[in-house]
Amino acid sequence: MKRLAAPKHWMLDKLTGTYAPKPSAGPHKQRECLPLIVFLRNRLKYALNGREVRSILMQRLVKVDGKVRTDSTYPTGFLDVISIDKTDEHFRLIYDTKGRFTVHRITAEEGKFKLGKVRRCQLGAGGIPYIVTHDGRTVRYPDPLIKVNDSVKIDLETGKIVDFIKFEVGNLVMVTGGRNMGRVGVVTRRDHHHGGFDIVHVKDANERLFATRLSNVFVIGDSNEPWISLPKDKGLKLTIAEERDARRAKAAEASA
To answer: Given Cys at both, which of 76, 97, 144, 236 links 80, Cβ 3.0 to 4.6 Å?
Structure first.
C-alpha cells in the first residue's frame, strides 16, 4: 500500500518512506484497523523499524484478545485488547474524539473481557441459533433476548458471552464512524427511515445533541455507566474555541 493511500488515522508522515504496511486479512476492515506494526513502532515507540517489530512478535510476547499474534500486519481494531505480558501492560484500542485510535492503558482485570456489537443474529445449519459480532466472532446458542445492534460482553479466555446490553433509549453509546467518531453520549431517539438509513440521536455529557447512522453506533454501557474505561477526554468533543482555551490554560499553568 502506498503511504499516501493509508488511512489518515494511522498518522504516518509523508516523507519517511514510500509505502505503508498493508493489513493482513482478518477480523477488521482494512481502513478501520490498526496493524500491529503501526501500534508497536509508531504509537508505543517500542521498536525503531519493522525488523525490530518482527523480532518482538516472533518471541511471542504480544497477545491480541488473549491469543499470541506473530503477524506484524495483523489488523487490530475497535475495542481489541493488546497485552504484553513481559511488561505487564494491557491496552484497549479505542477512538479519541478526533477519530484516531488512542493508546489507552487498562488494568489486567479489564483486559480479560471485551465488548462486541452484534451484527447478525440468525439460525444456522440444524436450526442452531448464532450471532456474529463486529470482530468476526461466531457465538452459538446465545441468550434469546440478544438482538442485532445490542452489545455482548465476551470473556476472552473462554470466548463465551457473560452479559449483554440492549440497544435502547437511555443507554450509553460510542460513535464508531462518520464525523462524530469517538464521541460518547446517551441515546435519546431512534428514527426509522424505510428504504433509507435509521438515524440515532445522541446527547453527550455537555448536553450537546448530535445525530448519526445506526450502523455507526456502538453500545458501551447502560444508563450513563460505561462497562469499559474511556480515554482521558471521556468522549467529549470540544469546539475549536474550547480547545484553544484549554491549550492556553495548560501553557499558562506550565509557565507559572
So the answer is: 76
Q: Is the model's pLDDT at 224 over the cut of 80?
A: no
Cα 74 from Cα 24, distance rounded (Å): 5
The whole-angstrom separation of Cα 4 and Cα 99 is 18
Q: How many helices and strands (H and E) does the chain possess?
A: 3, 18
- For 59-87, the pLDDT digits (tens) are 999 999 999 999 999 999 999 999 999 99
How many of the other CB atoms lie within 10 Å of CB of 238?
Answer: 13
Q: What is the dihedral of CA 80, 236, 206, 216, to 10 degrees?
A: -50
Between CA 172 and CA 178, with CA 176 as vertex, the angle to 5 degrees is: 120
For the stretch 38-67, pLDDT in tens is 999 999 999 999 999 999 999 999 999 999
Which residues 6+ apart lie within 8 Å of 118 measured at CB?
131, 132, 133, 146, 147, 148, 149, 150, 151, 152
Among residues 131, 122, 135, the alpha carbon closest in space to that of 150 is found at 131
3-state helix, strand, coil in the chain (%, to 5): 20, 35, 45
CA distances from 44 to 41, 89, 101, 109, 197 (A): 6, 11, 12, 21, 38
Q: For residues 181 and 12, give the distance between their C-alpha atoms in angstroms, rounded to a whole number.
A: 20
CB 101 within 8 A of CB 92: no
Rounded distance between C-alpha atoms, residue 90 and residue 64, angstroms: 10
